[in-house]
Amino acid sequence: MPNILIRRLIVLGGLSIIGILFIQSYWLVKTWDIKDKEFDQTVNIVLRNVAQRMSKFSNTVLPKSGLIQRKSSNYYAVNINSTIDAGILEQYLRQEMAKQSLSTDFEYAVYDCVSGELVYGNYCSTENLSVNELKKNVKLPKLNDLVYYFVVRFPSRENFLLANKNMALILTTLSILAIVFFLYSMWVILEQKRLSELQKDFINNMTHEFKTPISSIKIASDFLANDNSLKNDPRLSRYAQIIREQNQRLNDQVEKVLNIARLEKDSIELRKEIFDINKSLTDIISNESLKLKMGNITFTPYNEPILINADKLHFVNVVANMIDNAIKYSPVNPAVDIKVVNHTDAIQLNIKDNGIGIDRENQKKLFDKFFRVSTGNIHNVKGFGLGLYYVKNICSAHGWHIHINSVLNEGSTFTITIPKISLK
Q: Burial of 76 by CB count in 10 Å (0-12 exposed, 13-18 middle, 19+ buried)?
């Protein structure tokens, strides 16, 4: 994965996390405010109904203003113009709370005008708890601006509100888990990226180190091949030829690995030039034909020059790679047919062989790095599985399209579609 893509992923992921946290926090605050308002409205209805029943019981008139006063988030005072019977008050409170489905603990106290103190009434629990288990609060604050009043406190208000927000809490938990998973995924991606970079650097350095001994072996093998005494000895001459061939094969594989390393680091610069595809293909086929001991490569050029704008070196490597594959995966007598088709807006380069073919399932992975079509326990075809991966990347870099049409045991046809250039 390219570094710029990882950076974009981290930035977008970070912004997404910030957005999720902001929306989640805003939603929780708004939900809490709504639930608190609902709670306050319900409590006001309960206390107003209780005050009206108390005034009716004592035949008094309620004050026109300031009947119910909220002194804190869970503490309410009710101002009435009559003495208060604590037993009747508790009964009315329980009944009205049941009517409004307000199932939460509460405690109340009544102001005693004689003693000038707020006399604690009772702690009323929604559960069947013993007196010792109830958390009584005997220090409810007294109010100096009221005369006949009672106070009600809801000690479990927060728990009551949270009990009605189970879904919000579940979604919050899921959001937190998603964020943790994303952060862990980012850590795994960065760690894998670091290990991948180490691997690429190692392979790149290793292949560069191979270049020096390969060059030395080539010089030595050329010297041996040109030595007159060796030329007269068929056995030694054959050994020298084997050294040259295997050294060239090793050099080709090292070049493939180096090209892939450059591709993955985005360091390959295309040096495009305009050239005739017919002439270039003729030269490539002439060189590749020298590698054939049996079989043939045929080329059907177009009847007039066709110009393309491409990196000539990479174009040669792409075609050479495909011809090599066609030869390697063909029977004893390879027959490779290359044809150029000139369309209105594009050029098609077709490379057809009589090889073993590729089944439909393997065609999907054919251009993946290191992928090689399985041939069971037979390993007569050597390579790293980098050739077609290189071909695909070079075609993509040029804006070309590559397509394969293959039938198992009947051969394959690779088609590269190259856009035409405008000379205007």
A: buried
